[in-house]
Write a sequence for this structure.
């Protein structure tokens, strides 16, 4: 790790003692210092994916330059080193999520694969005709479609807990929908389309009160806040490395050991077995039972480096900084005449979805891009959320700890430019 990859928490002159040195942190992200269309890049598409610090880039490079080999297989030095680094990354994820045991951490491609894994194994084994799977109206497609496929296959019913006009789950309705036919509740911790932070501790308590296991889609939460799967008492928790400053193509599924033990394997192949004959295969122990084939070795090690980096800054400090940015952006953007915020939940994290009256969100995004400001436009893989708010799409600015107040101002100036061009 280069010395520049170690972020320094530091009070800036004249700022609150909780402020950290964002300019210093930005130096760890080479991509952020470039210009786009002749303007300084303002990257506000962090909910889609985050940029990578040198610590992550160098961790992968170090692996390939010094000790890359396949894992869990060789007795030779390279393989032993690679295996150790890979398993250390698992321990880092365990510690990050406060899981009790590292065998409860399964490496997957990302949140999408984690949810598909649970639907295809736990779901297939538990859900039958007439049963129900409960999700909410806030979910990303990856926490809808795997359950839809499962329900179609099993003759089960997908139920959806509604949201209100703020973009908050209506808890009384969710509670009513939990019944003796419900085999699993799958709910996001933070909505990617609106930024709503769901009261998942309470939701888990309601479900467990009726004996119903809960999967939490943590893709948009883990980059912004401390997550403690034991304190939450959730049964499954899914995260994506690329949204947490790590590489793409790697993520993790936390699963309660007793549930993972009872679940059939997801995919068959190398590493997930303990012995194979043509008559019978016995499966490997956790978590390897769920990790068939050569995994994303470099991505996993890079993910571990990203976790170290993020924790070096501290999730509390990150949360505070991002909250300040979101509050500033909410105040400034909502004050622009003709701008409507989509999603005004009382608790939000890092996401500002909005519409500019009379301008299609794609045009908003295109004009902002020319100003150097990268936002996402579209349905954000949450079409039912768009349908609920009766909009085809939104523009979405989403923040990370490396964003600055000046970048919020650039967004605001960009929206004024949109209005000038289309007004
Ligand atoms: C809330 C939420 N769930 C799931 C996903 C899917 O994550 P991935 O594409 O990394 O598998 C995303 C990605 O945007 C998301 O925001």
């Amino acid at each position: 790790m280069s010395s520049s990859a170690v972020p320094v928490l530091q009070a800036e002159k004249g700022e609150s003692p909780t402020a950290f040195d964002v300019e210093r942190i930005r130096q760890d992200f080479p991509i952020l210092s470039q210009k786009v269309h002749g303007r300084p890049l303002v990257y506000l598409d962090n909910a889609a994916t985050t940029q990578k610090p040198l610590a992550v880039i160098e961790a992968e490079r170090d692996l390939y330059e010094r000790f890359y080999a396949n894992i869990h297989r060789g007795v030779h030095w390279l393989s032993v080193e690679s295996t150790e680094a890979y398993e250390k990354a698992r321990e880092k994820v365990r510690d990050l999520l406060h899981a009790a045991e590292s065998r409860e951490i399964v490496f997957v491609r990302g949140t999408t694969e984690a949810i598909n894994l649970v639907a295809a194994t736990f779901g297939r084994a538990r859900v039958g005709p007439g049963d129900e799977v409960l999700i909410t109206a806030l979910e990303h497609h990856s926490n809808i479609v795997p359950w839809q496929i499962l329900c179609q296959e099993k003759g089960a019913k997908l139920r959806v807990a509604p949201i209100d006009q703020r973009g908050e789950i209506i808890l009384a309705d969710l509670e009513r929908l939990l019944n003796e036919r419900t085999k699993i509740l799958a709910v996001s911790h933070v909505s990617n389309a609106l930024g709503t932070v769901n009261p998942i501790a309470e939701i888990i308590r309601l479900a467990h009160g009726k004996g119903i296991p809960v999967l939490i889609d943590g893709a948009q939460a883990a980059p912004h806040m401390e997550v403690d799967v034991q304190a939450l008492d959730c049964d499954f928790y899914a995260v994506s490395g690329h949204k947490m400053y790590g590489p793409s193509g790697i993520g993790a599924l936390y699963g309660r050991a007793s549930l993972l033990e009872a679940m059939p394997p997801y995919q068959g192949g190398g590493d997930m077995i303990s012995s194979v004959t043509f008559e019978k295969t016995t499966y490997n122990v956790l978590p390897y039972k769920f990790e068939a084939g050569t995994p994303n070795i470099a991505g996993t090690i890079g993910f571990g480096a990203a976790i170290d980096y993020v924790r070096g800054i501290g999730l509390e400090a990150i949360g505070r900084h991002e909250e300040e940015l979101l509050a500033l952006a909410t105040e400034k953007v909502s004050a622009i005449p003709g701008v409507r915020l989509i999603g005004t939940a009382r608790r939000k994290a890092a996401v500002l979805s909005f519409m500019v009256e009379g301008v299609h969100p794609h045009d908003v995004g295109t004009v902002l891009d020319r100003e150097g400001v990268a936002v996402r436009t579209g349905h954000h893989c949450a079409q039912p959320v768009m349908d609920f708010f009766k909009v085809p799409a939104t523009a979405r600015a989403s923040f990370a700890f490396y964003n600055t107040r000046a970048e919020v101002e650039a967004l605001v100036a960009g929206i004024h430019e949109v209005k000038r061009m289309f007004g």
About this structure: Residues 110-112, 140, 142-143, 188, 192, 217, 219-220, 240, 242, 381 surround pyridoxal-5'-phosphate (CB under 6 Å). Residues 1-17 have pLDDT under 50 and may be disordered. The first strand starts at residue 35 and ends at 36.
